[in-house]
Each structure stands twice: as C-alpha cells, then as structure tokens.
Amino acid sequence: MLVFIAKRLLWMVPSLFAVSFLAFALIQLPPGDYVTTYIATLAASNEVIDQNTAAQLRERFGLDDPMLVQYFKWIWGILSRGDFGISFEWQQPVSGLIWERMALTLVLALSTLIATWGIALPIGVFSAVRKYSIGDYFFTAFTFLGLAIPSFLLALVLMYIAAVEFGQDVGGLFSSEFETAPWSIAKVLDLLSHIWLPVIILAVSSTASLIRVMRANMLDELPKPYVTTARAKGLSEFRLLVKYPLRIALNPFISTIAWLLPNLISGSVVVAIVLNLPTAAPLLLQALMAQDMYLAGAFVLLICALTLIGSLISDILLALVDPRIRLE
Amino acid sequence: MRDEILSRGVTRRAVLGGMAGVAALSIAGRVVAAGGEAPAWAQLARDGKLPPLAERLPKKPMVVTPFEKAGTYGGTLRRGLRGSSDHNGILRMVGNQSLVRWNLEFTQVMPNLAERWEINDDASQFTFHLIEGVRWSDGHPFTADDIVFAIEDCVKNSELYSSTPAQLSVAGKAVKVEKIDDFTVKFTFAAANALYLENLATPLGQHPTLFAKHYCSQFLPKYNPNIAEEVKKAGVGSWTDLFRARCGDIEIPSRWGNPDKPTLDPWIVKEPYSGGATRVVMTRNPYFWQVDTQGNQLPYIDEINFSISQDVESLMLNVISGKIDIQERHISVLSNKPTLSQNMEKGGYRLLSLVPSASQQCQIYFNMTHKDPALRKMFADKAFRQALSLAINRQELIDIVYFGQSEAYQAGPRPEHPWYHEKLARQFSEYDPDKAGAMLDQAGYKMDGSGLRLRPDGQKVFFAVDVIPTLYPDLVDALELVKAHWAQIGIEMKVNTIERALYYTRGDDNAHDAAVWPGPGGLDPMLDPRDFFAFHPQGSRYAIPWSLWYTSNGARGEEPPESQKKRMKLFDDARSTADLSKRGAIMTQIFDIAADEFETVGLCLAVGGFGIIRNNLHNVPEKQPDSWSWPNPGPALPQQFSFTS
C-alpha cells in the first residue's frame, strides 16, 4: 500500500507540469490578451483608454514575450520562491488572492458533499428496497424535477422569494458586519447561517442523480445469492443491507471523490455568480475572461493538484471499502 | 478672461434646456459664516484627535449650492459595482476632483480646485489659481508643488508612462508645468490647445490632482534612494509596479486599493477594492474642502457602501427590494424599465432619466480599407452605402427593438445641440427599397436569377457585420432586422456575433468586413468625432488604418484620401480655436464634408437610459447627462446628496 501511494505521489509531479502547461496554453488561446480585454471592458461602459496606454501596458506585463518564455518565467517563480506572479487586473500578488477563496470553496464543497450524500444515500437505499412503492414513486418524481431545474434558475427563484417576499438579505456567505472581520466563532456561525442556501441549491441536482445511481446499484446487488445467504443465516435486515450490498453500491460514490472538487468549482460557477458567493469560481471565471493569465493559471493549477490528491484518496478508500479491489 | 471662459458655455446652455432649472452652481471665495460639521468629527475635534473645522477647511472654501435644500449629516449610501474591473464605477461617484469640472448641463467648465484661470491668446498657456488652504485627506496642504510633481515627476517620467497621456501633449510634445507661487501654476503647451479646459473636466484630465507629492514621492527613485528595498519588501517586480499599487492611476483598480493614499475626494477608501473583495466602503474625508451655502462642511453622507454583484440580475434584485440608494450603471438598459417601474413602490425609489450624450444607437461601419480589394472597392462605393441605407426600414426597427422611443438618424450632434447638422443627420434615412435597388443596379451590382446581387467580378455580394451580443444585445436584434431588409434587395449579410476581445482584435488587425457600435458625439462632438472623420484607432471602424495614420502623424497606418486629410486638418484647427462660434463654423465644415462622403450608416438616435433614486435620498438631479466625459453622477456633486431620516 505504501509503495503504491509513493508511486502515485511521484507520478503527480509530471502530471502537474503537463497540466500547468496545458492550462497556460489554453488561457492564451483566445484572441487578444489581457490588454485587449481591458480596453474592451472599458469600452463597454463607453470609456476610453488613452491611446498610448495600451502599448505601455503590454510592455509592462511582458505580454510581448513568446508564450513559452512567459510560461517558464511563471513556473520558475512558483518553484523557486512560491511566487505565483502578479494579477494584471488587481496589481496584487496572486497568492494573496487565491487562498481565502480556495478555503471557502473547500468549505462549500465539503458541506455540499455531506448534504448530497446525507440525502441521496438513505433515499437511494429506500427506493431500492421498497421498489415501486408510493415512496419510491414520490422520490423518483422529485429526482426528475431536481435534475430538470437548472440550479442557477433555482438560485434566482429562491433569491427572489427571499428578497422580495421576506425582505431577507440574500447573496454572499456572510452578513455585512462579518464580511471583512477576522475569523471568530461568531463569524463561523454567521457563515453557517448563510451557507445552507447555496448548499441546498448545489445539492439538488447532484442529489437527484446520485439517488438514481444508488437505487440502480442496490437493485443490482439485492437479488444476488450472497444477500439471500446472509438473510437465511438470520442477519437482521438493516445489518444485512449495510454490511454487504451497500458497501458494494458505494463504489461509484467513492471513485468520484476526485471529480467532486473540479465539478463543484466549474459546475457552481453560475450559481456562485448569481448568489454572489466569495468562492473561487467567480474569480476564476473573471480571470479567464480578462485573460489574467497568472491568476487563472494558479487556480487551474490548484484545482488540478486537488483533483490528483482526490483521486489518490478515492483509490485508497476504494481499497478499504470494496473487498473486490486489491492493489496488487 | 475668466468671464470670457464662462461665457463660452452660454451659447451651448440651451442644449439641455430645462434639465436643471436651479443648477447647483458653486463659486469659490464667497464668504460664508463658519458652519457645522458631521457630529462624529465635531466630537473628535472636541477630544483633540482632529484639528477644529476652521483649521481643516480653506479660508475661503468652495461653496456648493445644494440642488434642492441644505442637507443633514449622516447615512450610508448604497450602490452596486459589478464584479471586477468596475473601478470606474467608484471613480464616477467619488473621484471627480479635478482642477475644473463640468456644470450640471454639460455645457460649461466650472472652477473646482482651481478657483480661476487665465488663458493666453493662442490658447497654449493656462495659468491656474488654486483655492488656498485646501488639504489632502491626511491633513497635508495641497499646493502648486503637488501639481508640478504630478506632471513633471510622474506623468512625464518615461519609466512610469512610456509616453505622455494624449491630453497632456500637443504636437507630440509634453506639456510644461511651472510653479508661479504656492497657489499658482502655469501649463505651457507646444502649440494651441483650446480644448484643454474641457478635457481637464473629463476623468482623463485628473492627472494634475491625482498624486500627493508628500506621499507618492516615496515611491520614486528620484526622491527615495532606498526604493529597491521597498520594492523587494512589497514583493513586486519594479518600482513602477509599487508606484501603481500604492498611488494608482486614473482608471485602474488599484486607485481604490490603498486606504493610505491621500486624496482630495469627498470620501476616502476604508475597505479597499482589491481582488476578491465583495464590497468597497468609502468613508467621509475630514479635510474635504467644500461647504454648502450655510458653511456646513460637505459631504453630508457618512459612508458609501459599494456592494459587488457578479451578476446584473442580482443587482436588479437588490434594486427592486430597496437595498440600493442610487444606481444607473449596469441597470440602465431599456429592457429593464418595465421591471424598474413596476417595483417603484415596493423598492421605495423614483426613476432617474439619463440624457444620452451619444448620437447614434447603432452605427454600421463598412470597412472602407478592407484587405480584400473587391470588398474594399464595394464598401468604398458611396452609392452602395447610400443604397443600403435606403433599404433599411428604420421605423419598423425603432418600433420593435426600441419600443418606439427613437427616430431615424444617421450621425452628428443631437437635434437639441447648436451644431445640429440636418443633412448629416437625416439624409438617406427614409425607407425606399425600390430606389435602393435601382441605385445598386446602376452601380453594377446586378441581381442574378435567384434574387441575389452579384459584384462586378461575378461573386455574390456577401459580408459579415461584427457585433458583441453580451455587450449590446439590442444591436443583435437591430442587425437581424437589417439583415431581413437587405435580403429584400438581394444583399446577403451575416450577423457575426463574437466575443468582446475578438471584436477588438479583428478591428486592430483590420480583419472585419463591417462592425456596429453606438455612435458617440451627440452632445460632445469635439471630444469624440470618430464618426465625422477617421479619428479613433479603435472606434473609427470604417477606416482604422486612416485613423492610425492621423494619430501617428503619418508614421503608421495608411494614407487617407484628400477629403479625410482635409477634415483632419480642420479638426486640428478647431482644437486650437478658443472662440466657440469660430470653432462651430470649422466643425460645420467638417460636418458638410462628412455628409457628402456618407461613410457610416446610422440607424436611429441614441435612446436615454434609466436609473433609480431611493425616495429618502435628496439633492439628486433626476435628469442627468449620460457620458464618460461627464461621468455621471459625479458632476451632479454626490457630496451634496443627503438622506432624510
């Protein structure tokens, strides 16, 4: 097992290099560069940039260098001094911008994971065990609704109801008095009182699909002979379910842990923008749109690193949970 | 001389007649009784933590007449920004303290930090007399030294600005700024620059008052030999990066990112606009140098809270649920008007109407300098352009896309402007497809058997019009209608919806067939004449290479035809003519030529936008020009906005 983990860790190094290069190249693919986008953004409000300034900005940001040179400057900064470069847009070191956002993203991702699994697993098992019961039909209907409603629409509708009908403060993850306050117990409680809305919205669609996956997996397992054997041996119905078929049926859940984070970041962009969440998604989107390369590159790099770590974790967990999987 | 300057505006005063019956005029130097100050400051002053009001204000502070009535202190004004890169949303509200400013009607330049000025006869020398005793927001005196520093040491520093901003150079030479005494500075240009005062009143004219010498000089190698250490400590690449991060520039986000930077604005940064910020908070400047007619120090409002919405819909939601006090930016499109009107009662607000300073809602630019010779020849054919203009059913377009709120228009100053030019504005704007067809036949674009027109070289007439759907969705709708109209006379057009940066890159590469953009120059024809000749290297999209030739003095681009060169020469004359009526005569010559050449095709007159003002917010003019040159609502003086409790 240890050898396996060490090998996987070693493999991550070249993967990260490849990924960072691809990310950097992709960010540069769209026409124009940061300065073009900057001019275009100003022009959007009919504002004019001084004619000389554009050329000046390009020179200052080193945008006239070839892509490879820019990439190696950037990656060398990260390797040699942990310097992720400067965000063009903000004139601030990238590292100062990303950490808090990434932390809040992880909090949101984990909360959503817990909510999704907490709802989807029991319901999935229930629907499988009580196949074609009224409860199963009810949850099936709910599932399809959940899948069909786009989450940004759900976010807008919930926000509208909360803001216009109940006069609630919606959007964001903190009340205004805590927005810039240092971390404290009160701030954590404030976060908890705000986070449920985005968690529900983000959980709805993934819950729906996970219920279906769980139900199908359980239905596959339930008629198998080992279940019958266990039942014949007099195991209580609940212990029986948890001990054998559930463990097997969990397989797809665990093996997708690795995708969870990137999915939550990319899948939640629209919701995060609508709800004004201070997570990584809106900043990443903005950085991509503004072609703010170093900021966007740092985000993509971090998300990739987290994905690689996540897939390692799911492999280890799979080995622990699913008796059919062996590392050798 | 000053009176003459003031009277210059009078001829244009009728422009926005009735926009503000009791315009908030202000005259520095009027003696007013020492008045009040915000209760919080009074307390601090009593405790000895802040100098008393009399020491914080100039001896003769600038007096601002409140728009409706003297206000009361207090309150937090809530306004919205959108995501990042919305720094100019702050500038428009807070950062308008230039040497001079616009009056409310956008017709006349008023004193601001300069209480008066003299201009020499050929308009190449400007001597400004500053209000004595103005202080930066940290209490340090503001003097002529600051202005000399800002221009001579900062703006003219070639490492910081590799070329001097266009406003501050004439004929390729940078302005020279000298200190006469502590409160007098002289600007000398290499040649006449009659428009300088008007330019100075626009946001891009803020450089002279942007950098406080006592603070910003610490980031210049000239004044700070230890700069290298500080650069290292701040973790930035060079001293220029450090300077920009700490002292900002007119329009970059970091202007609002440093709470320590001294400013002359009514409010100063408390929670900065930095990457990842979810809001920006500005707080009252204890040293702000303007008072109301009773001598009370401005601003009335304690704080401004800019919430940052990533999404316009959530900004709209905040507006209709009454969580925004004044907003027009981002929500001012026509399609939001029904929602805003419906929710007036619920949100507790009234509507604000914006007078467009633009001329044209949608201007079509055919690329007359196209790289493909056949297309270039076609677009350069005046009869072709005229025929296409005649084939557009403008009334249908106005009814469908603009809810009937516009009129057919080509280009040029708006009808209420004294320089309005009938021929330029109205020619070929009637709907006459038969005549259009006949003109095309005659010009050699014959119809083939399938009802499509062919070029003289036998190719089908086909071109694409670039448009940015995310920016101006109405232009896409308008173009779809135009496409249908042109199809009726056998012209095939593609509505080329593209992303913003690509639109610009295609323009820069001269790779577009045609493009659309709202046409400026309705109320400010001198400030942006891009539709009257090839003036703007990004905006005059019918001939970008010509405008490059013009702006680079012939070094780049492509030499334009005679009629363009003549207009360029005339415009240079107009720019150096101080007398407004003479200037108008020169501009009329330009309009005459532009009307004869018919280079751009316009659809309809620009339509005004909307905004909201909460019912408890007062002293806000409910009709304002909408322009970057008049950066609404700034020139309406937000420092005299006031809440009733």
From TrEMBL, chain A:
Q: Which UniProt keywords apply?
A: Cell membrane, Membrane, Plasmid, Transmembrane, Transmembrane helix, Transport
Q: Which organism is it from?
A: Rhizobium gallicum
Entry-linked InterPro entries: BPD_transp_1_N (IPR045621), MetI-like (IPR000515), MetI-like_sf (IPR035906)
Q: What is the lineage of its organism?
A: Bacteria, Pseudomonadati, Pseudomonadota, Alphaproteobacteria, Hyphomicrobiales
Cross-referenced Gene3D superfamilies: MetI-like (1.10.3720.10)
PROSITE patterns in alphabetical order:
ABC_TM1
The name this protein carries in UniProt is: Oligopeptide ABC transporter permease protein
Q: How does it sit in the membrane?
A: Multi-pass membrane protein
Residue stretches making up the ABC transmembrane type-1 domain: 102-314
Q: Indicate where this protein resides in the cell.
A: Cell membrane
The entry sums up its family as follows:
Belongs to the binding-protein-dependent transport system permease family.
Q: Where are the transmembrane segments?
A: 9-29, 102-125, 137-163, 195-214, 248-275, 295-321
Q: Which Pfam families match?
A: BPD_transp_1 (PF00528), BPD_transp_1_N (PF19300)
Q: Name any GO cellular component annotation.
A: plasma membrane
Q: Does the keyword Glycosyltransferase apply?
A: no
A single GO BP term for this record reads:
transmembrane transport
Where primarily located?
A: membrane
